[in-house]
Amino acid sequence: MTALARSHGWRGPGQVMGQGSDVQGVSAVLRQLTTRYALYFPDARMSPTISSVTVTSRRHCDLAWVELKFDGAAARICVKFPKDPKKRPHTHLERVGQDPSVEFETLSYLHERFRRVPGCAVVRPIALFPEEMAVVTEVAEGNNLHDLIKRKAGPWCGGSEVEALKAHCLASGVWLRHFQEFTAQQRQAALPMSKILEQVTADLEVCVQMGLPRAVAFSLLTLCEEQLRTVEGRKVPVVGEHPDFQPDNILLSPAGVTVLDFTNFQYGSAYNDVGRFLASLDFLRKNPLYSRERIHTLKAAFLEGYGWSRNEMDAGLTAYLIRYMVQATRTARKWSYPNPVKRLLERWAIGCLSAWCRRAMRMGDACGEHILG
């Protein structure tokens, strides 16, 4: 622990800091936040003290959860920074895909606009420290939607709990509709067909290595190609893409929906985030305890909030749904479980994708039925 951390009363994170975190990087950010506090906390009358710091690790970044004391009042902030800050910035950017300034600028833009939309929010950005590649935000409060669905979508839960999940998914659809309205561009573009097919092909090859029959992989790739040919040459509106819009990044509270993590914000098709969310729900069925009917109910609620009817769904959305179902299955290869458990989960994931493929092939061109099936 550094002298600066000790002087600020840094309690914890103990051994957590050994998981690839950079103490000096966090300390540099905290030094600037506390010495130049008037710039970042304009309502504060004196420098805050640091009550506690806890660091958690993610695949591409670490998050420092910091509790500050202002004249007796407490505030919680989050410092997001790369795992390898001593490496050249472009090395990290090649791995993650975006400069941290993209997330800060995106949050700044969206925060002002969502303040006018009841029940929809993003976290308030506080500061960007380019030299540390760190973004500082307020901490959002709420329950993670993915955790809520896993706990309450099973057969052991009653109708009232499912109704609450429907309301959460509907609200998530409303949030996405506003997000796309705020980020819409004055231009249109064709779907990136070659890129989608390359991604699906590469991910299917991993799935085959995990046990997916090659005949099933061929059927999925063929279906994706057919759907893309249906919309070939058609130009669609260009909007902002999250593009990791799934229940893991959505918090629910009495105040409404807060969406997290804009590290990879970019511009593209409206289909992308819709397809990502729907696929994340469909992929829950890798666990046989989740019924298709309940997943169908949550998907329909999300699309209702988003504002798409069954008749408005088309082949473009089906192509993105295939893309993200295959991607979700491929990620099972990287799950860190003991080998017998991991292999069982891989088989469940492959079984889920195979069953999904069979339903898709039966439905053929009935896009609305396929997406909601």
Automatic annotation (TrEMBL):
Output the SUPFAM superfamilies linked to this UniProt entry: Protein kinase-like (PK-like) (SSF56112)
* InterPro entries documented for this protein: Aminoglycoside_PTrfase, Kinase-like_dom_sf
What is one Pfam family matched by this protein? APH
What sequence ranges are listed for the domain Aminoglycoside phosphotransferase? 155-307
Protein name (Swiss-Prot/TrEMBL) = Aminoglycoside phosphotransferase domain-containing protein
Q: Which organism is it from?
A: Candidatus Methylomirabilis lanthanidiphila
